[in-house]
Structures are given as structure tokens and as C-alpha cells.
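[Discussion] Sanity-checking designs against the backbone

I'm trying to build intuition for which residues belong where. Below is a C-alpha cell string of 268 positions. I'd appreciate it if someone posts a full sequence so I can compare it with mine line by line.
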């Protein structure tokens, strides 16, 4: 449960909301606010006080544009004030939409690793950000595979796939690309021809750099349920399995957290 303060003017149905209005995400659907153009910031005691003053100003007849301007000035002053002893983390919710056109299905082989290999590069590139899975020959005598690359947010990512001869190890990290020689066998076998197949997984990876919450998914324009999602990993699994003949669209909110100084304003 959290309270959010509106930074601008937004129309929700027949109701006009102005800067300083407060939303409780238990009682209100804040995604509706966001996708109507609303900008929200997590409440703090200081912002609650300012919000109350702005609400009083609106009741006194202040124009919505004036209230939004006042909130902008106040937010800028907060951002430019540094007080290490009272700094707090403030979260802002940002709406996003991403399209994945014809992504590879789960199980597309990116690289077959022989148990004697030390470090190898992928042969087939990822068409869309996805988690990975490794299918191991029953006779695999090499070590675990460490895979490094770039995530959909552009940052470096890494995951260790623990060997499972005769089975499959499914990863949770979304990769947009795998580094050159980015598949490393920590303990290569001295001889033998058993393999481990590095493949695409069933998940789609979102480009947000921070945690996400997906709330709508369509396949070729038709809405369907989200089977699973892990906000911390920014991954989503659609009901329709990934296939290179369909377009998947995902709408989600992303939480940005930044340091903001809390201080006292004297109003006259």
C-alpha cells in the first residue's frame, strides 16, 4: 500500500484532478491515472503538507495551471537541496509500452557447447530479449556454464547455469545479446563429445532498468492473460507461447527510486 501525489493536471472520466491531489493505490487504480497522462510521485510527510496547501489553493479558486507550476517549482527546489542527514528514497511510477514482433520461440538453439570447450560465442543471435535455458546431454562431464552478455536495458548481465546431465536448466535473467566468448565452461572435460545446448527460454525481457509490474498483454492485438512475471528480473511470460509469427505487446509500470532531501519550508 502506498500513497501517491499528482504533479500535474489530468482528466479521469468526468473528474479533473490537479497537482497536489493524493491517490491511495489500494483504493485507486493508479495505472489509469498514469495512462491518462498523470505524473505521480511517492508521498512523503513534506510533500503531504505541500499537497494540502495546493488543495486549499484549488478550493480558493487557483487555476490548475498555477497549481502545476507551483508543484514544479517545489519539486525542483527539493531536487536541488542536499541534506545527507535527512535524505530519503522517493519512488516515481512511470508507464511503459513495448512491442516484440516475431520473437524466437523457446528452444531455439543459440549455441551447442562441447564439453571440452572453454569459452565459446553464440552462433544464432537473439531476435528479442529472452531468458535462456541449457539442455544437457546425459553424459555431460564438463562443468557449469557461466553466460555473460547485455540485458534489454543495455547493462551487463550474467547468469550461472548449474550442470544437470540429462536435464534442462532454465534461467531467469533476460539477455538481449551474449558476449563474444561469453559462454564459459568453468571445468571443461579432458575429452569426450557430449554437449550442452544453450537455447532461448519462454520469457520476454523488458527494457526497464528497474523493477516492473506488467498489467496488460496483447498478442496480434488480442488481449490475453499474463502467465507469470518477475518484476525484479523485468520478465513476462505470455499465455501464448513465443513464436516467430506473432507480435506481443506489453504495458507495464516501472518504479524509479531516487534520493530526495527532506527539509522544512517556512510559508508566509
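Best answer:
Here's mine. Compare freely.
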Amino acid at each position: 500500500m502506498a500513497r501517491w501525489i499528482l504533479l500535474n493536471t489530468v482528466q479521469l472520466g468526468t473528474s479533473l484532478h490537479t497537482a497536489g491531489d493524493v491517490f491511495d493505490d489500494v483504493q485507486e487504480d493508479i495505472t489509469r491515472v498514469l495512462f491518462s497522462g498523470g505524473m505521480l510521485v511517492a508521498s512523503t510527510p513534506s510533500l503531504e503538507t505541500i499537497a494540502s496547501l495546493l488543495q486549499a489553493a484549488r478550493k480558493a479558486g487557483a487555476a490548475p495551471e498555477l497549481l502545476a507550476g507551483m508543484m514544479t517549482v517545489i519539486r525542483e527546489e527539493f531536487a536541488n537541496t542536499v541534506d545527507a542527514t535527512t535524505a530519503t528514497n522517493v519512488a516515481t511510477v512511470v508507464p511503459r509500452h513495448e512491442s516484440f514482433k516475431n520473437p524466437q520461440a523457446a528452444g531455439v538453439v543459440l549455441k551447442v557447447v562441447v564439453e571440452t570447450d572453454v569459452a565459446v560465442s553464440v552462433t544464432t543471435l537473439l531476435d528479442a530479449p529472452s531468458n535462456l535455458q541449457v539442455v544437457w546431454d546425459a553424459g555431460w562431464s564438463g562443468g557449469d556454464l557461466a553466460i555473460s552478455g547485455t540485458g534489454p536495458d543495455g547493462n551487463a548481465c550474467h547468469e550461472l547455469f548449474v550442470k544437470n546431465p540429462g536435464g534442462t536448466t532454465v534461467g531467469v535473467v533476460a539477455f538481449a545479446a551474449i558476449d563474444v566468448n561469453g559462454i564459459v565452461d568453468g571445468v571443461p572435460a579432458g575429452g569426450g563429445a557430449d554437449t550442452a545446448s544453450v537455447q532461448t527460454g519462454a520469457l520476454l525481457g523488458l527494457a526497464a532498468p528497474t523493477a516492473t509490474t506488467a498489467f496488460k498483454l496483447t498478442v496480434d492485438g488480442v488481449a490475453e492473460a499474463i502467465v507469470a512475471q518477475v518484476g525484479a528480473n523485468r520478465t513476462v511470460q505470455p499465455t501464448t507461447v513465443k513464436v516467430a509469427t506473432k507480435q506481443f505487446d506489453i504495458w507495464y509500470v516501472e518504479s524509479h527510486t531516487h534520493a530526495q532531501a527532506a527539509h522544512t519550508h517556512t510559508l508566509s
